[in-house]
UniProtKB/TrEMBL annotation:
Magnesium among keywords: yes
Activity regulation text: Feedback inhibited by histidine.
Reaction catalysed by this enzyme: 1-(5-phospho-beta-D-ribosyl)-ATP + diphosphate = 5-phospho-alpha-D-ribose 1-diphosphate + ATP
Function: Catalyzes the condensation of ATP and 5-phosphoribose 1-diphosphate to form N'-(5'-phosphoribosyl)-ATP (PR-ATP). Has a crucial role in the pathway because the rate of histidine biosynthesis seems to be controlled primarily by regulation of HisG enzymatic activity.
Alphabetized PROSITE patterns for the sequence: ATP_P_PHORIBOSYLTR
Protein name: ATP phosphoribosyltransferase
Primary location recorded for the protein, binned into one broad class: cytoplasm
Domain ATP phosphoribosyltransferase catalytic: residue ranges: 52-206
Cellular component per GO, a single term: cytoplasm
Domain of life per record: Bacteria
UniProt GO MF annotations: ATP binding; ATP phosphoribosyltransferase activity; magnesium ion binding
Protein species of origin: Psychroflexus salarius
Catalytic class of the enzyme: transferase
Amino acid sequence: MKEKLKIAIQKSGRLHDDSLQILKDCGISINNGKDQLKVSASNFPIEILYLRNGDIPQYLRDEVVDAAIIGENLCLEKGEDLPILKSLGFSKCRVSIAIPNQVDYQSPKDLNGKQIATSYPNTLQKFLDQHQIKAEIHLINGSVEIAPSIGLADAVCDIVSSGSTLFKNNLKEVEEITKSEAVLVKSPHLNPDKKEILNKLLFRIDAVLKAKDAKYVLLNAPNDKIDQIIKILPGMKSPTVMPLAEKNWSSLHTVINQEKFWDIIDELKAAGAESILVNPIEKMIL
Ligand SMILES: Nc1ncnc2c1ncn2[C@@H]1O[C@H](COP(=O)(O)OP(=O)(O)OP(=O)(O)O)[C@@H](O)[C@H]1O
Ligand SMILES: O=P(O)(O)OC[C@H]1O[C@H](OP(=O)(O)OP(=O)(O)O)[C@H](O)[C@@H]1O
Ligand SMILES: [Mg+2]
């Protein structure tokens, strides 16, 4: 296969490090020359282009790049036509409207006639239209949260994650327009060779993400407790059970999802499990 899939990731900013990391976790070797805007992987048919996040939707549409890792909120802002292939679980945030702490707020109607500063005019306009609100949008490219305190706007619409930027600027979040996380998107048109490379990459990303959510658990238990313990385990298929050197004891191996992990461990202990070992999983292929 001679074709290479061109993948855009953010040149610098919130998404850059985790985007590179997920490709590396997929076993893709990227020799990162500093200041290089385009690099080829040495062991997988992709070329990585480092671009501004905000420019990527148009590059995908123009087929300058074939796929990209961007913030989901950018799809709502500039790329509703771009197919989202996978949520990647990092750069989680939301796009929200915030107003000064001392101002009362009941409903979106309170935004009527107000001036709202934002870097996401389309996202905000869609929200205002949905609620039949007429407000004036001030486009600002950064440090949006400062706008109310310098008299530039009555409200802001920007990204919120921990909420500390709002807090420091005496603002309160009053409407959440959308949630966001990093996503893998693709150009609307891809030739069959490129589709095949993208599917291979997706397969690897799936294995990496599944493994992140799971732990490999080994435990010892007396044989007469094994049936009860197996009922507690939500394993992949059924757990591996192996006899221990000690008579009437066995070792059980299974995979437990991160989300329910501690509850299950508590139940296992109560049911007689001992010497529970928990290991990270590097890749998970089901
Ligand atoms: N505080 C945050 N916490 C979590 N995710 C965030 C945060 N701020 C931004 N993001 C996510 O990261 C993406 C990139 O944000 P960042 O501020 O790095 O770049 P940008 O200014 O939007 O883009 P460009 O690369 O065009 O300069 C956003 O679209 C959003 O999805
Ligand atoms: O809720 P928090 O955890 O405080 O995060 C929210 C802040 O993070 C982003 O800004 P960033 O730091 O990316 O700076 P920017 O304005 O230059 O994009 C966003 O624009 C908010 O200002
Ligand atoms: Mg930012």
